[in-house]
Design brief:
Blueprint: H1 2-15, H2 25-30, H3 32-37, H4 39-50, E1 53-58, E2 61-66, H5 69-78, E3 85-86, H6 109-123, H7 125-147, E4 153-155, H8 156-173, H9 183-201, H10 205-208, H11 220-247, H12 259-265, H13 270-301, H14 303-316, H15 319-322, H16 331-343, E5 353-354, E6 359-361, E7 364-366, E8 371-374, H17 376-380, H18 424-441, E9 442-445, E10 459-460, E11 466-467, E12 472-477
Parallel strand pairs: 2-8
Antiparallel strand pairs: 1-2, 3-5, 4-12, 5-8, 6-7, 9-12, 10-11
The structure holds protoporphyrin IX containing FE (HEM).
GO molecular function: heme binding; iron ion binding; monooxygenase activity; oxidoreductase activity, acting on paired donors, with incorporation or reduction of molecular oxygen
Keywords: Heme, Iron, Metal-binding, Monooxygenase, Oxidoreductase, Signal
Family: Belongs to the cytochrome P450 family.
């Protein structure tokens, strides 16, 4: 049945003129295992054969993948206006679809108000400055906690996750959501967030054949809804309590106005707030945790680079000054951060885009509603773009103007165009302060005297490209 449908689809797309080239269904079926496990690598391999812009027919869906800086530029700059929709996976097609921000179908009115508010209240230079006391407080708490773990093995991702959730929940709601010692709630929250992301990229028959979408044959939509409901309960109670306080005029200002106050002033409904907060937690925690984990793994593996970073941090900073210093002036340290994001692009194919209208890219036609991936992973690992692309070499960024601000199309860890990551300033600040503190304050060793050179660097594909085996470390405070 599925093969027959594939045949029909192939006929349909073959009759569309001037699509980008690409494999017919058979090579895709032949590569099904890799397509499912590591689609970013499978697509990069297809690009070597068919060119930088390819089309893949998956059921009734057409996926267009860009794998060169030129193709990325046409999508994110030249045709950004027409290609700035998002393709919402069936698992996330819920009744509140119109309230999405990260997954907003197009740049609609609600998306615009989310973006404007988030920029003003969370990501502008003024907002980032205003958050530093809070951020430092949460970081200090994390370091205190680590001081008491001397000699024991720590899963670093969980610790950083809890720190980031609490930083964000305080910025949004003036409240801690998690306790560093309460592994279980942290685990539940992280599991829920990751499960939603995982469901959104699991190959789903409903995505390939939307005609059977209503049946939710794999149960992914239902499962996502359960997690979305459970996670919303974290914010729901706070929003209701704040509303009641405002109604009864007993909202005593024990803190500066927070993000929740601004959302209420802007007439966001409780459901809209719950979804926005959830999306911010999803977009803003796992990404940063994953980037820090990759950076730490690379520094462990490349001890000569670690020594250079340690020397720079020691020369320029002291423990007390980390929080107050402008870390963007540390050239080698920042080159390590860029190199981590190049070698391990945290969002490997960006968050899939959708063509709002048919348009031309590289002289090919992108039909309306085609899904688009910008394969940042393929660009980052292309020897035509980067010399010795598979080696961790921060030196390549020294004396170079290449940056991740969305204008250098060979280096797009935060995407580009109107859907580019608005959280970039906050992400970079967290990456810098957490990583610098961990390097400056502690020596890190692997459990069981494992040799860092043999550290397993396997990737696990998802919306975020995680380290398959979480990094476990023993921290000892430097003398
Ligand atoms: C290392 C950390 C991060 C990386 C690598 C990253 C990367 C990305 C990428 C690639 C996109 C899609 C861009 C595109 O389609 O062109 C994105 C979107 C987004 N990111 Fe980030 N991100 C990070 C951290 C954050 C943080 C800390 C926040 C907020 C707290 C955040 C909020 C968002 C939002 C709201 C969107 C959706 C924007 C839209 O669709 O208009 N991100 N991010």
């Amino acid at each position: 049945m599925i093969l027959f449908l594939l045949f029909l689809v192939r006929k349909h797309y073959t009759s569309l003129k001037n699509l980008p080239p690409g494999p017919q269904p058979w090579p895709i079926i032949g590569n099904m295992h890799q397509m499912a496990k590591n689609p970013h690598i499978a697509a990069a391999n297809f690009a070597k054969k068919y060119g930088p812009l390819i089309s893949l027919r998956l059921g009734t869906r057409l996926l267009v993948v860009a794998s060169s800086p030129d193709a990325a530029m046409e999508i994110l700059k030249t045709q950004d206006r027409y290609l700035s929709g998002r393709s919402i996976p069936d698992a996330l097609q819920q009744s509140f679809i119109d309230y999405y921000f990260v997954w907003a179908r197009d740049c609609n009115k609600h998306w615009k108000s989310c973006r404007t508010l988030c920029w003003a209240e969370l990501f502008s230079a003024k907002a980032i400055e205003a958050q530093s006391t809070l951020q430092n407080e949460k970081l200090a708490r994390m370091l205190d906690f680590l001081n008491n773990t001397q000699g024991t093995v720590v899963k670093i991702e969980e610790l950083i996750f809890t720190t980031l959730i609490n930083t964000l929940s305080n910025i949004l709601f003036s409240k801690d959501f998690l306790d560093l010692k309460d592994d279980e709630t942290a685990h539940r929250l992280k599991f829920g967030l990751l499960k939603i992301l995982e469901n959104s990229v699991t190959p789903n028959v409903s995505d390939f054949f939307p005609i059977v979408g209503g049946l939710d044959l794999q149960g992914l939509r239902k499962d996502s809804l359960n997690h979305l409901d459970e996670l919303s309960s974290f914010s729901d109670a706070v929003v209701k309590e704040r509303r009641a306080q405002i109604t009864k005029k007993v909202h005593v200002a024990v803190h500066e106005k927070d993000f929740l106050d601004r959302l209420l002033e802007n007439n966001f409904t409780t459901a809209q707030i719950n979804i926005l907060v959830l999306e911010l937690f999803i977009a803003g925690t796992d990404t940063v945790v994953t980037a820090i984990e990759w950076a730490m793994a690379e520094l462990l593996k490349n001890q000569n680079i670690m020594h250079k970073v340690q020397a720079e941090l020691k020369r320029e900073l002291s423990y007390d000054s980390i929080m107050k210093s402008d870390l963007s002036k540390l050239t080698y340290f920042n080159a390590c951060i860029k190199e981590t994001l190049r070698l391990h692009p945290v969002v490997p194919v960006l968050i899939p885009r959708r063509a709002l209208k048919a348009c031309e890219v590289m002289n090919f036609t992108i039909p309306q509603n085609a899904q688009l991936w910008v394969n940042v992973w393929a660009i980052s690992h292309d020897p035509k773009v980067w010399e010795d692309p598979n080696t961790f070499k921060p030196e390549r960024f020294l004396g170079s103007n290449i940056n991740f601000t969305g204008h250098d199309y060979e280096f797009l860890p935060f995407g580009g165009g109107r859907r580019m990551c608005p959280g970039l300033p906050s992400a970079v600040k967290s990456l810098q302060t957490i990583l610098a503190s961990l390097i400056l304050v502690y020596d890190w060793t692997l459990p069981n005297d494992e040799d860092p050179k043999t550290l397993d660097m396997s990737e696990k594909f998802g919306v975020t490209l995680q380290k398959e085996k979480p990094l476990q470390l023993i921290f000892s405070r430097k003398k």
